[in-house]
Amino acid sequence: MKKRIFTIAAASLTVALGLGTLTGCASLESLTGLSLPSSSPSATASDAAATSKTPDDASSKHSKTGFLSPFSANGAVHIYTNIEGIDYVLALYPSQSTPDPSAWYPKGDKLFSMNLQAYDLSTDLRAPYLNKRMVYLSTVSITSTLTTMSGATGSSSSFVRHGNAAQLTFDPEPLVNGNAGILLMSPKGIFDMRNQTIGDLPLDTIGITLHMQFSVHVQRTAGSPLYDDRTVGMDVPIGITPSTKATASKSVPVDAF
């Protein structure tokens, strides 16, 4: 399944290649990997959604409502989106303070963490960085819609995030290449958001869907000074169990995921 520019100076290229010698976060366990935009069209969120892969069977339905949510059914979710040979892998999992998403209720805080990495599938996953196409994440936009017991859906302000990726990521010193953004290429690059909070929701809510758009810059070929702009879109449905009681949370160490 497949989903779908700008030019940087040679100096920026040197920075990009030099990042291959830096250390960063480890790759995801489940995978077996600036200025001026060109006239090339960017991939839309709908394009991205068409190539995302998540479980889509009865076991993914939220047990009490029928709301389709692999995250709630499995306790975590990985979404894979392939655009022109680059695999974007999103991992979303509940934070330790609210570890059981099957017991997330409309009332109370519900916390999750997430990360995003890129893999160049045109090369061996353990190939040197000089052989890989670099991918940088510049901005992140997340909106949400709610689904109610009646089946109605609508946009919501319950969870919204917009901003520069380098400012939103958990890492205080991410690997950054100027205006291109933070390095996503695995294993040294990662975008990591911790302990994001979904607060009180209307009592008839049975699901909240997060609509994520990531603006990325992708090297055309390994070592090239030319980059393409792309927008990677991913949707994450999260089931909410109807109840008048609040979601239970527990105290955890400040450095817990």
Structural class: mainly beta
Element string (H = helix, E = strand): EHHHEEEEEHEEEE
**Unreliable stretches:** 1-52, 54-59
- Mean pLDDT equals 81
Helix content: under 10%
Q: What is the number of beta strands? A: 10
Lay out the secondary structure.
Layout: E1 6-7, H1 10-18, H2 45-51, H3 70-74, E2 77-83, E3 86-94, E4 110-120, E5 135-148, E6 153-164, H4 165-168, E7 182-183, E8 191-198, E9 205-219, E10 226-239
Antiparallel strand pairs: 1-10, 2-3, 3-4, 4-8, 5-6, 5-7, 5-9, 9-10
Q: What do you see in this structure?
A:
The structure is a single chain. This protein is mainly beta and 257 residues long. It has helices spanning 10-18, 45-51, 70-74, 165-168; strands at residues 6-7, 77-83, 86-94, 110-120, 135-148, 153-164, 182-183, 191-198, 205-219, 226-239. Strands 1, 5, 6, 7, 9 and 10 form a 6-stranded antiparallel beta sheet that branches. Strands 2-3-4-8 form a 4-stranded antiparallel beta sheet. The model is unreliable at 1-52 and 54-59 (pLDDT under 50).
Quick overview of this protein structure:
The chain has 257 residues and is mainly beta. The protein has helices at 10-18, 45-51, 70-74, 165-168; strands at residues 6-7, 77-83, 86-94, 110-120, 135-148, 153-164, 182-183, 191-198, 205-219, 226-239.
